[in-house]
Amino acid sequence: QVQLVESGGGLVQAGGSLRLSCAASGSIFSIAAMGWYRQAPGKQRELVAHITRDSDTNYADSVKGRFTISRDNAKNTVYLQMNSLKPEDTAVYYCQLTTPWSWGGRDYWGQGIQVTVSS
Fold this sequence. Notes:
This protein is an all-beta fold. Helices cover 0% and strands 50% of the residues. Strands 2, 4, 5, 6, 9, 10 and 11 form a 7-stranded mixed sheet that branches. A 4-stranded antiparallel sheet has the order 1-3-8-7, with no helix packed on it. The termini are far apart.
């Protein structure tokens, strides 16, 4: 069983920065793909950033150039550095871990953390 715990959210003014962290339990982290998603009120959950086990990354168009996803396998932690934040970045942010197909291809989710950007 994998547990994911997010931290680092909060309230920030537009133009500011935050760094989210997601710590994973268990021994599968280094071979898992990781993602950050977000869900704003009344909207569907959307992918923000994704990083493979080999540290290949991709981003939603809306955050390219502002957000950076990274991972530290020694700490079982994935990060989301968010710069130049905008009010439209306000949402609950969720961490996701996806196991390799050889491990069942399962998705695990964190409990979510609030990010609020004031104008």
